[in-house]
Amino acid sequence: MLIVASAGAVAAVRPITDLPLQADGPNRWRLPAGEYRGSFRIDQPLQLTCAPGAIFQAEGQGNGLLISAPDVSVQGCTFLDWGADLTAMNAAVFIQPQARGAQVLGNRLQGQGFGIWVDGTQDVSVIGNRIQGDTSVRSQDRGNGIHLYAVHGARVIDNHVRDTRDGIYIDTSNGNLLQGNILEDLRYGIHYMFANDNQVLGNTTRRTRTGYALMQSRKLTVIGNRSEQDQNYGILMNYITYSTLQDNVVTDVRDGSTGDTMIAGGEGKALFIYNSLFNRIENNRFARSAVGIHLTAGSEDNRIAGNAFIDNQRQVKYVASRLQEWSADGRGNYWSDYLGWDRNGDGLGDVAYEPNDNVDRLLWLYPQVRLLMNSPGIELLRWVQRAFPVMKSPGVMDSHPLMQAPTQKEPA
């Protein structure tokens, strides 16, 4: 195996042209198999393709590869053991602001720091990479798999990230596409902060502490994603406005009891909506979780219709001061515990579904009351609510519940 040794424990960043590159066409270069030690930079437009067995070994220091020129492509390389200093933003591949149009394609990255850091760059493509963190390090001390800061026009597609801190972290970045990524065994699968006009399409999270943490953002399009066996939250919306959640599937969210949740009370919620307004939440499926949907902190004026809430231990948890109608254009949601009927066969229940009456509120405040669920006292309280509606607390009403769960659309 060819080995290019570094000059010392902390080697200077060297140009990629120091390596034994082989011409593969105009401005196209091929790096033969071998272990190349140290940190390298690409400071001119070129396309770099690694032969099988070509490995960048950064020896625990700095970045593996620094891209500082526009129109650079890096494909098929392996990056190992770059620096773990998160304050210094050590990454396997660090893309600087002037590297517009950079492409990072089909690489394998394994280490403790950030995987791919995109720093204030436009029109970057990060496609088909496999990124793995180091499980011997606490998750909060690992870098994120893919980190976008002040980025516009990025395409992050078909990557597989596991065992890093967050899978994909997006901060102050607008107009980007995240599609078809698989994100497993992480803190947060996809983590948005102050990022607007972004698309999140057809991604999958598994065994994260929060699948999709959508924070402080607006005009997000979140369609056709999956959350499987995540902890605490499948989808968390915190200060999200004017956004669309559609055709997503969230199943088997459980209470992780990690103490590392974004908002206290993450006891296995498929969808948690916190202080979020004017959103469209339609045709999603929330199933087999501790809580199907929880709204709080002024999360009102959202359109919630056509969703399916299936076999959740508690379908709805709602804490607010006024009635919420969860149907639109004469069509509500499907509830697996709905006990109404459909006499005219139009597919809609003839009586409204009200999931959180005074009895439910009593159970939230005093869980031990569950021991009395079938007692005459509880039955009397429910009868009084029906007989004297003025005594009802504000809550959720679905006036047109669906008798069958809508067919789930496949992502485009």
TrEMBL record:
Coiled-coil segments: none
Entries under Pfam families matching the protein: NosD (PF05048)
Ranges where the Carbohydrate-binding/sugar hydrolysis domain occurs: 31-171, 177-351
Organism: Pseudomonas veronii
Protein name: Nitrous oxide reductase family maturation protein NosD
Gene that produces this protein: nosD
InterPro entries reported in the protein's UniProt record: Carb-bd_sugar_hydrolysis-dom, NosD_copper_fam, NosD_dom, Para_beta_helix_rpt-2, PbH1, Pectin_lyas_fold, Pectin_lyase_fold/virulence
